[in-house]
Design goal:
Helices cover 42% and strands 14% of the residues. It is of the alpha/beta class.
Length: 266
């Protein structure tokens, strides 16, 4: 036997599998807040990777339609559903509609979020309630409902924030608290669902160029010097990270709060 042939065969057998061109083919994803910003980029990336995608919107009907149109123009399948993430019943109905439309659910991405800033001394209580409702409670509700439908290989991915671990300016206490709550929730849900083969992770972006915090907006001057990269992130960069966690190669990652913040927290 030719030893070179033996070595070659062994190496081939032990080589890591080559990722499929469309690793999410046949999967169904549900993305809250998927009409614009990071959520829209995630919806488009998951669709490009082969998933059928349902996305929710609350006040951005035109943007939701545009996101669906972009996905469909590229040959994907998408569904836009009106559902304020602070409305438990609407969120549940949207998930159930997704399952009815596409026949299954494999991936939940909790992307909807609100940013309210203000000193704790006079932070408005309605702002506190809205922040907790969208950034925390909605994640619990959506995960609770989605978990009924997810099977082995299922994924729950939440968009958190680097501010869960670093809040370098005044006025962000309530927002940081909401994202820290999600980080703890992720660890607990990973334990709850791990035996079923479902992974649960949080992606924690730093400053990203979106309508919420544009790279040329009022906060940029203070944030840019804190970034090791010297620039804001792009929504597509966050989406690529989410797509990896949603895919077959990330099955051993769970209970993790993963930074993608341009060195903001370094």
């Amino acid at each position: 036997m030719n030893p070179e042939t033996t070595t070659s065969t062994s190496n081939a057998a032990n080589a890591a599998p080559v990722p499929a061109a469309r690793p999410l083919a046949g999967k169904v994803a549900f993305v809250t807040g998927g009409a614009r910003g990071i959520g829209a980029a995630i919806a488009q990336r998951l669709a490009a990777d082969g998933a059928a995608v349902a996305l929710t919107w609350a006040r951005s009907e035109a943007e939701a339609a545009a996101t669906v149109g972009t996905i469909e123009a590229a040959g994907g399948r998408a569904l836009a559903l009106r559902a304020d993430s602070a409305d438990d019943a609407a969120l549940e109905a949207a998930i159930e509609r997704t399952v009815a439309q596409f026949g299954r659910l494999d991936i939940l991405v909790n992307s909807a979020g609100v940013l309210a800033l203000g000193s704790i001394e006079d932070f408005p209580l309605d702002g506190l309630d809205r922040t907790l409702a969208v950034n925390v409670r909605a994640v619990v509700i959506a995960s609770r409902i989605a978990a009924r439908h997810l099977g082995a290989g299922g994924r729950i991915i939440t968009i958190g924030s680097t501010n869960a671990e670093r809040m370098p300016f005044a006025g962000g206490a309530v927002y940081a608290m909401s994202k820290a709550a999600v980080a703890g929730l992720t660890k607990g849900m990973a334990r709850d669902l791990g035996a079923r083969g479902i992974t649960v992770n949080t992606v924690q972006p730093g400053p990203v160029d979106t309508e919420m915090n544009p790279a040329d907006g009022p906060m940029a001057a203070g944030l840019l010097p804190m970034l090791a990269t010297g620039r804001y992130g792009r929504a597509e960069e966050i989406a690529s990270f989410v797509a990896y966690l949603a895919g077959p190669e990330a099955g051993y990652i769970t209970g993790a709060n993963l930074m993608i913040d341009g060195g903001f927290s370094a």
